[in-house]
Amino acid sequence: MGRGKLRIYLGAAPGVGKTYAMLSEAHRRVERGTDCVVAFVEHHDRPRTEVMLHGLEQVTRKWLEYRGGLFPEMDLDAVLARRPHVALVDELAHTNIPGSRNAKRWQDVEELLAAGVDVISTVNIQHLESLGDVVESITGVRQQETVPDEVVRRADQVELVDMSPEALRRRMAHGNIYQPDKVDAALSNYFRPGNLTALRELALLWVADRVDAYLTQYRSEHRVSAIWGSRERIVVGLTGGPEGRTLIRRGARLAEKGAGGEVLAVYISRSDGLTSASPKELAVQRTLVEDLGGTFHHVVGDDIPAALLDFARGVNATQIVLGSSRRKAWQYVFGPGVGATVARESGPDLDVHIVTHEEVAKGRGLPVARDARLGRSRRVWGWLVGVAGPPALAALLSAVDLGLANDMLLFLALTVAAALLGGLFPALASAAVGSLLLNYFYTPPLHRWTIADPKNIVAIVIFVAVGAAVASVVDLAARRTHQAARLRAESEILSFLAGSVLRGETGLEDLLERVRETFGMESAALLERASDVAPWTCAGRVGQGRPVDRPDEADVDVPVGDHMALALTGRVLPAEDRRVLAAFAAQAAVVLDRRRLQEEADRARALAEGNRIRTALLAAVSHDLRTPLAGIKAAVSSLRSEDVEWSEEDRAELLEGIEDGADRLDHLVGNLLDMSRLQTGTVTPLIREIDLDEVVPMALGGVPEGSVDLDVPETLPMVRVDPGLLERAMANLVENAVKYSPAGAPVLVAASALADRVEVRVVDRGPGVPDEAKGRIFEPFQRYGDAPRGAGVGLGLAVARGFAEAMSGTLDAEDTPGGGLTMVLTLRAAETHPEPFHTAEPERQAS
Question: For the Histidine kinase domain, which residue ranges apply (predicted)?
Fold first, then answer.
């Protein structure tokens, strides 16, 4: 019997309906007469899932004792003995109770498949082994139960069970997933909208990659060479010339017009390496295509049109973008060109776009790698052997008669020796001198420049031809060997350069020092100027050589664009070294630009920080001072009134109100003065480590007693905040929540730890805010709905968010399950909590 087939229902999180979909499929198969049994399905007290089990045959479970308790597990032996056609096995990543035959449930499934039983199972995306770190960074929870990716990838069918985060949270709030006592904790932690959206994206991308891999496998197995336009893939052919940037941008525009468009830029170089494009230009084009969301590919091929078409068909491309030829008119006598050949050979399933550009008919202009020259001593010895060697050999052979054939072989060996030592021209000289000596001394009539026997004429001609051919081959082999060694050295240098880019090394001085050491120079400097008439300035310099202020003062200068140049002193470099040096120069320019962008980003961040603090300061002055001042004024006016006789208790209460208001003003003014100093740059934020329970209770002084329930566990890690800013932010959030909460429904202020952050949630049961208005409520002078004019000027939430961001935190609004609004204040924890806080994702959960 053959191996069974595996079908998996994949979901982004518990509750999306994987088990329900699996049971629905089982009912459909039973109705068709398929022998289908439930090997193990856990309904977790979900009524709809439990109902779906009715009418399906269930294999009796096996109960195992572990640590004083009994736990149900799938009875693998019973299922194998029953030998159904299809078995339903829930929770593929489940860890079996110790004492089971296998440690993991997916291993049980492997045994069923090996026995010829088809299996239908379920798994969540967070249980895939390769995604463990990603899921932990998103949710703060490390998944202990995982399944190897290969097990899921080997499945015959993987079906995605999808549900939007909003719909899943509604199901959770209605009690369709967990028990009511676990709903609030789950919604506040694991089942937050951001978590669910990120997990959903992971699931969709994983399934999309598998679909793409399956399509590639199918095309390979069925030898499908035709293009299947399932999505637009644009291949842009590059030559390394300046027109490549135009082609890349045109390809990106074409990709944007199609759904899921993808750009693949490809540069094809010949295998002999004798011609190549500018490394600087290719580096610029690689950066451009990656910035536009595409990919860069380097392919080796001697037949460029064929290699380009093979690449396009291999990636299932739909269009090819090429530039108009840069060849001049007379060069077309050598052939139609790459563009015309590709267009002719592309076939009906591949569109070819020929794009005009400014370099049309201006000539290729690409650098050609010259053959490496042999050393001087070798050339001298080669000429000595080639010119002086034949007369010496003739003098030696004059005393010995070996015959014409042997004499020719000895002269031919001398020619080969000249080629090995000095290259082509000494070998040709040796062949010419040797043929003359053979004619004069060894072919009748002797000692004359004529040849009597025609056969000897043929022999000498063959000797010259063979000598020239052997000399050419030996010379070419020697030059190619030298060239290969040089190219290997260049590739190692470029590999290091690429590695430094991937590692994110952005030190300009370090890169210049690497250039100086690589080429053995005394100094290296990067010069730039603002315009063609502006003076040159030095952006970076290393080495002890003479300083240069202009590129023309250096021994070697490599231009980078119009207003930048890499200048080196020490010696004059050969032309072939400039190709690698151009790559270093381009990278130096990129490093300099990156450093300046980072500096500008830092300045912009500092300006934004100052603006945020300034805005919060002004808002606090106009908003937070009003309430205590109004209370103090009202109390003083009442005490000064002569129309009312106040009792001692009333006078004491009014004086207490004045004192409380004054204390509140004193505390607030102190914070505002500190913030004004921050805004002027005379002091930095007073960020320190503090416990939340030291600050949050102080923020509740302005709300009625009993209107807030506080839940701040003592086990929470400390947070890195400015206590004054945090107190003001919390006071505004709590006052806003109390303002909109109905009577008898206290506001909940709860805190929890998630990975390296701490969340403070202010939960009210008021009317709530629709999604489209959640962003506007944080803008200054915004009052949501029909709030009365006396309810404030609409700055409380804007102030709170400004304070939160000043402390490197965030403040967001979410819906409260059952109605209302929840403000989520996220702060940086002082240290990572030793045990991640997880209440929403038990180790064993069915969907």
Answer: 620-831
Mean pLDDT taken over the chain: 78
**Comparison of pLDDT for 275 and 483, the residue scoring more:** 483
Q: Which residues contact 711 (CB under 8 A, 6 or more apart)?
A: 748, 749, 750, 751
Q: Is the pLDDT of residue 828 over 60?
A: yes
The sign of the torsion formed by the CA atoms of 463, 464, 470, 471 equals positive
Residue labelled with tokens 């699931």: 203
How much is the pLDDT for 553? 81
The sheet carrying 36-40 orders its strands as 57-58, 36-40, 86-89, 118-124, 6-11, 157-161
Which pLDDT does position 838 carry in this prediction? 40
Supply the Cα-derived Rg of the chain in whole angstroms: 41
User: How many Å apart are CA 566 and CA 538, to the nearest integer?
Assistant: 10
Q: In terms of pLDDT, which residue wins out, 555 or 221? A: 555
- Containing H/E element for 761? strand 757-763
In 3-state terms, what secondary structure has residue 34?
coil
605: confidence class by pLDDT, cuts 50, 70, 90: confident
- DSSP character at residue 373: P
pLDDT at position 196 over 70: yes
C-alpha neighbours within 13 Å on the C-beta side of residue 691: 8
Tell me, what's the pLDDT at 686? 81
**DSSP, res 791:** G
d(CA 234, CA 355): 14
SS3 content of the chain, % helix, strand, coil (to 5): 50, 15, 35
Q: Which residues neighbour 552 within 8 Å (Cβ) at sequence distance 6 or greater? A: none
Residue 819 tokens read as 């109605």
d(CA 620, CA 591): 43
Gap between the terminal Cα atoms of the chain: 32
How would you classify residue 293: left for phi > 0, otherwise alpha for psi between -120 and 50, otherwise beta? left
Amino acid, res. 611: N
CA atoms within 13 A on the CB side of 229: 11
pLDDT digits (tens, 9 = 90+) for 638-650: 888 877 788 888 8
d(CA 627, CA 212): 62
Percentage above 90 pLDDT, the chain: 15
9-18, 460-469, 701-710: which has the minimum mean pLDDT? 460-469
Whole-angstrom CA distances from 814 to 467, 763, 811 are 88, 9, 10
- The structure tokens listed for 629 are 């001042």
Residues 346 and 309: beta-carbon distance below 8 Å: yes
355: part of which helix (H) or strand (E)? strand 351-355
pLDDT at 109: 94
What is this structure's pTM?
A: 0.40
Q: How far is Cα 144 from Cα 103, in angstroms, rounded to an integer?
A: 13
Residues 239, 355: Cα–Cα separation, whole Å: 13
- Which phi and psi angles does 434 have, rounded to 5°? -65, -40
Neighbours of 70 (CB within 10 A): 9
Residue 585: name the closest of 529, 656, 678, 512 by CA. 512
Name 299's Cβ contacts closer than 8 Å, sequence gap at least 6.
Answer: 266, 267, 268, 269, 307, 308, 311
